[in-house]
Amino acid sequence: MAPPPPILLLTRPEPASRRFLAEIEAKGVTGFETVISPLIGIETTGPLPEMAGIRGAIFTSANGVRAYRALGGPVLPLCYTVGETTARAAAEAGFAPKSAGGNAGDLVAMIAAEAPEGPLLHLRGTHSRGQVAERLCQTGVATREAVIYDQPAQELSAEARAALDGESPVILPLFSTRSAAQFAKAPPGRAPLIVAAMSGDVSAALEALYVTRLEIPARPDAAHMRAVVIGLLRDGGALVQPHGSVKG
């Protein structure tokens, strides 16, 4: 009997999950099933602060770009983003973004090295890591911040819980410590669980959760994360023997 196909469990907000899935399918990867069950919601809250005098925007998530657009934020002369996905969203909004291609630390280093005339404005969500505005101010780059969207936690769907309690191996990409911690609260299932964690911090947020296999990309960015997940999907048929035991 052939082993069951792996299930790709996507827990990012719906737009990000569908974009990630489309990017994987565009690489010609087949032979897997997909369940989308966001663990984090996105709700635009606003308001925007007084924008007079602000010379540039800093975005650490495409969600921030979308919230900024929804609130009617103007296109500014300068724009900095943490990674390529956020840069694409900013470009679609009319900005000419410069991407750090990494994490918040890379973003701060890039902006500090350029030393632009401020003030800059970091548009972020309620839950944010990296202290971007504070660290930039410490380097001499005047930076403010505005919380313009919320990220409420959500429970796994019934479909996701059924997948986790089934026979097929479940491949779970986790992009943030908060989504990892939220997932770790769910009751454990019996399906083999293969995790791709964006970073060591993300994997640590899983705490004592048992996983069959854990992969961390060489760099904490979308391209490397996608490559890791594609590799796991292509290995999916070999992850579980026909009788359901996990290969060590």
UniProtKB/TrEMBL annotation:
<feature type="domain" description="Tetrapyrrole biosynthesis uroporphyrinogen III synthase">
    <location>
        <begin position="30"/>
        <end position="225"/>
    </location>
</feature>
<protein>
    <submittedName>
        <fullName>Uroporphyrinogen-III synthase</fullName>
        <ecNumber>4.2.1.75</ecNumber>
    </submittedName>
</protein>
<keyword id="KW-0456">Lyase</keyword>
<dbReference type="Pfam" id="PF02602">
    <property type="entry name" value="HEM4"/>
</dbReference>
<dbReference type="GO" id="GO:0004852">
    <property type="term" value="F:uroporphyrinogen-III synthase activity"/>
</dbReference>
<dbReference type="GO" id="GO:0033014">
    <property type="term" value="P:tetrapyrrole biosynthetic process"/>
</dbReference>
<dbReference type="InterPro" id="IPR003754">
    <property type="entry name" value="4pyrrol_synth_uPrphyn_synth"/>
</dbReference>
<dbReference type="InterPro" id="IPR036108">
    <property type="entry name" value="4pyrrol_syn_uPrphyn_synt_sf"/>
</dbReference>
